[in-house]
C-alpha cells in the first residue's frame, strides 16, 4: 500500500512538473509583449520630450518622481517577505514577487518621465545612472530567474525533475519512432548528451552546441512528423479530425521532450549566473537607494 501511494505521489509530481513546463512554454510570449509595451511608453516619452509637458519641479512631473521613488523603495519588501519571519504577515511571496517585478520596471519609467528624459544637476545625474544600472541589472536577473524556474512566475525546476519528464516523454515517443525511425538515433544521442555530468567548460559548450541542435530540431521535427503522419493517415483511412488530434498529441510529446532537454542543458549555467547576479545586484541597489536619498535632500535643501 505504501509503495502504491509513493508511486501515485511521484506520478502526480511528474504531471505537475510537465504541466508547469507546458505552461511556461505557452506563456513564453508574454515577456516580449511586455517589453514592447515598455519600449513604446519610453519611446513616446522621448518623442514628447521637447514639448516639456512635464517638469521635475511641480505638477505631474513632481508627482511621478515621488511615485517612482516610492516604488523603488518598495522593492525592498520582497526580500523582507521572503527572508524574514516578520514578513509572514505581509501577504504571499508570489504576490510580492509580482509586485517586485512590476515596480522594478515601472518605477524607473516613472522617474524617467519625472526627469523628462534629461540629465540635470550632478546629484540627479548620479541618481539617474544608478537607477538605469539597477533597472538593467534587474532585467538581466529576471531573465536568469525564468531559466531556472518554470517561467517567470512558476516554481523552481530541478535537474532530477527534468530528467523524469524526459524519460516519461521518451516512452511516449514510441509511436513517433515507428513513423520516423530515422530520428531514433538522433533523439537517443540528444538524451545521452543532456544527461551527462560535465564541468563548467563542458556545460558551457553543451549550452551552445546541443542547445542550438535541440532548438532547430524543435522547429524542424513537427514538419517532418506532419508529412509522415499524413502518409500513414491516408493508408489507415483516418478522418481529418483523427489526423489533426494525433498530430497534436505527438507534436506535444516531441516538444516536451526537447524543451525539457533544453532546460536541462541550460540549468547549471543559468543557476551559476543567477548566483553571481545576486551577489552583484544588492550592492547596486543599495547604491541606488543612497544616491536617491542624497538627490531628494539636495533638491529640497537648495
Describe this structure in words.
The chain is an all-alpha fold and 302 residues long. It is 81% helix and 0% strand. Helix 3 runs antiparallel to helix 5, helix 6 packs antiparallel against helix 11 (240-301) and helix 10 packs antiparallel against helix 11. The longest helix is centred in the last third of the chain and has 62 residues, at 240-301. It is elongated.
Helix content: over 70%
Number of separate structural domains: 2
User: Which term fits the overall shape?
Assistant: elongated
Largest sheet geometry: none
Q: Which series of helices and strands comes N to C?
A: HHHHHHHHHHH
* Proportion of strand residues: under 5%
Number of helices: 11
Number of strands: 0
| Rg over C-alpha atoms, rounded to the nearest angstrom | 25 Å
Mean of all residue-level pLDDT scores: 82
> Structural class, from secondary structure content?
mainly alpha
- Poorly predicted sequence stretches spanning 5 or more consecutive residues: 1-10
Separation, N- and C-terminal Cα atoms: 77 Å
Amino acid at each position: 500500500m505504501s509503495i502504491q501511494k509513493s508511486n501515485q505521489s511521484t506520478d502526480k509530481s511528474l504531471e505537475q512538473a510537465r504541466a508547469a513546463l507546458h505552461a511556461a512554454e505557452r506563456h513564453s510570449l508574454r515577456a516580449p509583449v511586455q517589453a514592447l509595451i515598455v519600449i513604446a511608453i519610453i519611446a513616446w516619452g522621448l518623442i514628447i520630450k521637447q514639448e516639456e509637458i512635464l517638469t521635475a519641479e511641480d505638477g505631474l512631473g513632481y508627482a511621478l518622481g515621488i511615485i517612482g521613488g516610492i516604488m523603488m523603495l518598495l522593492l525592498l519588501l520582497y526580500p523582507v517577505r521572503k527572508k524574514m519571519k516578520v514578513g509572514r504577515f505581509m501577504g504571499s511571496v508570489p504576490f510580492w514577487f509580482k509586485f517586485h517585478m512590476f515596480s522594478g520596471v515601472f518605477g524607473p519609467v516613472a522617474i524617467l518621465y519625472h526627469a523628462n528624459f534629461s540629465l540635470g544637476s550632478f546629484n540627479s545625474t548620479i541618481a539617474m545612472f544608478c537607477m538605469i544600472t539597477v533597472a538593467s541589472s534587474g532585467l538581466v536577473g529576471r531573465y536568469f530567474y525564468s531559466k531556472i524556474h518554470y517561467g517567470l512566475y512558476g516554481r523552481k525546476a530541478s535537474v532530477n525533475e527534468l530528467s523524469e519528464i524526459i524519460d516519461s516523454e521518451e516512452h511516449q515517443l514510441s509511436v513517433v519512432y515507428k513513423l520516423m525511425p530515422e530520428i531514433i538515433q538522433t533523439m537517443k544521442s540528444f538524451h545521452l548528451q543532456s544527461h551527462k555530468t560535465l564541468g563548467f567548460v563542458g556545460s558551457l559548450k553543451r549550452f551552445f552546441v546541443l542547445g542550438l541542435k535541440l532548438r532547430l530540431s524543435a522547429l524542424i521535427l513537427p514538419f517532418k512528423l506532419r508529412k509522415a503522419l499524413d502518409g500513414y493517415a491516408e493508408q489507415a483511412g483516418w478522418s481529418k479530425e483523427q489526423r489533426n488530434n494525433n498530430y497534436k498529441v505527438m507534436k506535444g510529446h516531441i516538444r516536451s521532450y526537447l524543451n525539457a532537454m533544453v532546460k536541462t542543458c541550460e540549468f547549471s549555467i543559468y543557476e551559476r549566473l543567477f548566483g553571481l547576479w545576486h551577489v552583484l545586484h544588492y550592492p547596486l541597489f543599495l547604491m541606488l537607494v543612497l544616491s536617491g536619498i542624497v538627490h531628494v535632500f539636495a533638491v529640497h535643501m537648495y
